[in-house]
């Protein structure tokens, strides 16, 4: 299945010049969404995975369905201030300023082998901070898996040394 | 399965006096999460449902797995400014000020029968705004389904006339 046909490009969002890759049109297609999740399920079924980690907020959508499909624990990486229990945090640079991600201190167990899931790999800033949080908890990122990749933004360089799996590439900034 | 055993109470979050019901500990239990989703799947399988609607952001987690389980379209209700395409919006009152939710104008089809999913039913403010958005698009909310309900906050009064299904009740404010 060519899933790129279900991804919509919205010009000038969130600002002029950005060609935003909108996965809501993909989510609105039940068989396409199932195709993605089932593909990942097959990919990770025999990899001795202990938990799925999803990034706030679109990453939750893909991570959650995968966790359900594999009957595995789901752990959340959230934006600052959203998690109620004791957290660890990691800040990363945005184009202007910084952002902070958090995980609960008991979100994962030491030695857990995890898959980190998001909808989009762009600069790798979010994924890099998420990897640091997971590793602070003593867990291991077996693979980072995203639906869409924007290779020109060089996320793979920022995440060098980590296995990365993506389904659709777009040569846009 | 008594799923309340997997839900953690965090005192004084997000502010003093609130007993926050934390579902992250539930999500970290693969069989418990699967139990919830499979229960909903059985409940809605023969109800001629056309789409699942999830509310930003924890609602995405439960809605997404249900959409996958039923192989149905997933539509998103998001906080203002997050959706890239043309939206409709609905504001609702918070304790201090207002908040605004949005849906894409093409998130649902006219006549769609939908299930609206969130983690928590409290005052019903979010769910009420989400129902209005769904109905503006010409779709019908067959049932509102949440994991946790706080009956003392009277969400059912605000949502009078709508079918509501919840799994665990807590008599806290």
In short:
2 copies of one chain form a homodimer. With 173 residues, the first copy, chain A, is of the alpha/beta class.
List the helices and strands and how they pair.
The structure is a homodimer of 173-residue chains.
Chain A lengths: L7 E4 L7 E4 L1 H4 L2 H15 L6 E5 L2 H13 L3 E6 L7 E7 L4 E7 L8 E9 L3 H12 L3 E10 L5 H4 L5 E6 L4
Parallel strand pairs in A: 3-4, 3-7, 7-8, 8-9
Antiparallel strand pairs in A: 1-2, 4-6, 5-6
Beta-sheet strand percentage of chain A?
Answer: 25-35%
The largest chain-to-chain contact, stated as pair and per-chain residue counts, equals: A-B, 44 and 44 residues
Number of domains as seen in the coordinates of chain A = 1
CATH class of chain A: Alpha Beta
Physical arrangement of strands within the biggest beta sheet of chain A: 5-6-4-3-7-8-9
Structural classification of chain A: alpha/beta
Q: How do the helices and strands follow one another from N- to C-terminus of chain A?
A: EEHHEHEEEEHEHE
Multimeric status of the protein: homodimer
- The total of beta strands of chain A comes to 9
Uncertain runs of chain A are none
Judging from the principal axes of the Cα atoms, what is the shape of chain A?
globular
- Radius of gyration of chain A, in Å, reads 16 Å
């Amino acid at each position: 299945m060519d899933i790129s046909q279900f991804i919509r490009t919205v010009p000038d969002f969130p600002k002029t010049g950005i060609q935003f890759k909108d996965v809501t049109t993909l989510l609105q297609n039940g068989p396409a969404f199932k195709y993605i999740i089932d593909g990942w399920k097959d990919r990770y079924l025999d990899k001795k995975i202990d938990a799925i980690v999803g990034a706030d907020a679109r990453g939750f959508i893909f991570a959650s369905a995968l966790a359900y499909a594999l009957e595995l624990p789901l752990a959340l990486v959230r934006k600052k201030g959203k998690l109620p229990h004791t957290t660890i945090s990691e800040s990363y640079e945005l184009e202007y300023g910084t952002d902070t991600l958090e995980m609960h201190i008991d979100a994962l167990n030491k030695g857990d082998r995890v898959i980190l899931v998001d909808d989009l790999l762009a600069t790798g800033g979010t994924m890099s901070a998420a990897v640091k949080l997971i590793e602070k908890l003593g867990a291991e990122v077996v693979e980072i898996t995203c639906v869409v990749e924007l290779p020109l933004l060089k996320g793979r360089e920022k995440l060098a040394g980590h296995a990365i799996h993506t389904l659709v590439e777009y040569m846009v900034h």
